[in-house]
Fold this protein.
Amino acid sequence: MPQDYISHKFIKSNSIESRQYQISLAKDAINQNSLVVLPTGLGKTTIALQVIADYISQANGGVLFLAPTRVLVNQHYEFLKENVLLDDIGIITGEDLIDKRKKLWINSIVCATPEITRNDLKRQIVSPDQFSLVIFDEAHRAIGDYAYTAIADNFLGNVRFLAMTATLPSEKQKAEEIVKSLRIQTILQKTDESPDVKPYIQETKTQWINVELPLEMKAIQTCLRLALDERYTTLRKNGIQISKDNKSLSALLRIRQYVLTQNRRSAKPLFTAIRITYALNILEAHGVTSFLNFCDRTQKKKGAGIKELFEVDPNFTRAVQLAKIAQSKGIEHSKIIKLEEVLSTVKDKALIFTSYRDSVKVINAKLLDMGIKSEILIGKAGESGLKQQKQIETVQRFRNDETKVLVATRVGEEGLDISEVNLVVFYDNVPSSIRFIQRKGRTGRKMAGRLVVLIAKDTIDEVYYWIGKRKINSAKAMGNKLSKKLANDSSESLDEFL
C-alpha cells in the first residue's frame, strides 16, 4: 500500500507521514488555544508542524516554539529545518550572547528555551507582538514560577497558544493551574486506546524486578532510621503533629513554614530530619557511593545541626563509618548486579534512567568496566554537568549506534526522539505519573519495547512504586475532568453574557 504524506505548500513533500489523528488534532488546535495530550512517540511535534505551516501561510506574525531543555530545543529546530519550506528559522538558548540573540529573534520561526525567552522579553530584546503563535512543549511544566507562566503573561490579544504534553498531572490543582496559566480553551486528548491511534502503538512489556539490599547496606539503613526516629520523637514532644509510621520527605517539607514562623524550637530537629531523610533515600535507591558523596557535600554547608549530625550523633556517624567500610570492600548496590544481568541479555540499545547525578556516574563506570559502550546524559547546572553542545553530541552518537547504552537523568526523559531503543531501565522509582510516563515512552515506538523497573525491598523504591501507580490512574482521567470543567466554565460565561 502506497505511503500517504502530508501535503502543504510550506511542508517538504513526501517527508511527513499522514496520520488522521494528527491531522484532526492540528485542525482543532488552529482555531483556539489548545492543550494536546498525546502519548509519547505519537507525533506531537508533527502536529505542531501542521499548525505552524498554517500560521506562516497566513503571514500574520512569527512563531515561537518553546521547549524546556537545550537538547529538545535543538531537536525541534533540526526537525523544522528539515521539513519546513522556509529559510529564516532560528534557535536561541542561554549560550548565545545578547548581540547574537537580537539578530536571531527576527526570524519567522524561533525555537528557544523558556528561561532565555522570559529574560529577553523582560529586557525588551524581543517583543511579544512579533508572534502570532506560541508553542509550549512539555506543557505540564507550566506551574508555579516556571518560565512558561511568565512568558504567557506577556502575550495579550490576538495570539494563539498551543500546549503539548504526553500526560497531565495527577493532581487537579496542578492541572487546572496549567490550563489557567496558558489560557487553554480546549483539551485535545488521545490515548493508547483511541481507535485511530491504536494501529501506531507498539507493545511495551514491563518487568518489575525486586532486589535485596546487601547486609552491609541494611546496617547503614538501620543506623539512619534510628537517627531519624530521634528527630521525630523530639518534634512530637514539641507539639508537632507528625505521623510515626509515614516518615516521608514531603510530610517534613510541608511543615517547614509552620516551624519557622510558630515553632522555632523545632527548626533544628526538623531540618536535621530532612537531611537524614535525603541521605536515607539516596542510600536506599542509589547506593553507597551516592550516599557518601551526598554526605560530603552536606558537611561542607552551613546550617542548623550539621556539625552535630556529622560529629556527635552516634547513629549517623556510625552510618557514615559503615558506608566507608562498605565502599572499601567494593560494595555498592544490589541494583548494579541486577543491571549487569539485564544488560547481558540485550543486544540492542538501552536507556537507563536515574534521578541522581552521582548514581549516573557510578552506573556508567560499571558499564564501561563491563566493556559496554556507554555515555552519560545530564543537564548543565552552574559549572557542572554537560553543556548544550555536549548533550547534543552525546544523543547523536547514541542515535548513530556509536553508543549502546545511555545513562540519563531527567534531561533524557522529555521528548528525546530515539526510536530504536528497545529497552528502558528505571534504576530508581519516581513518585510522579508524568516522569514515569515520560521515561516509559522512550521505548516501544517503532517496535515492541521492554521496560525494567528495579525495586529495592523495604526501601523508598517500594513507597514510590505505590505512589506512582496511584498517580498514573488519576492522571488518565484528568483530561476528561478538565474538558468538563472548561465546558462548564464556557457555559457559565455564555449565560452571563446572555
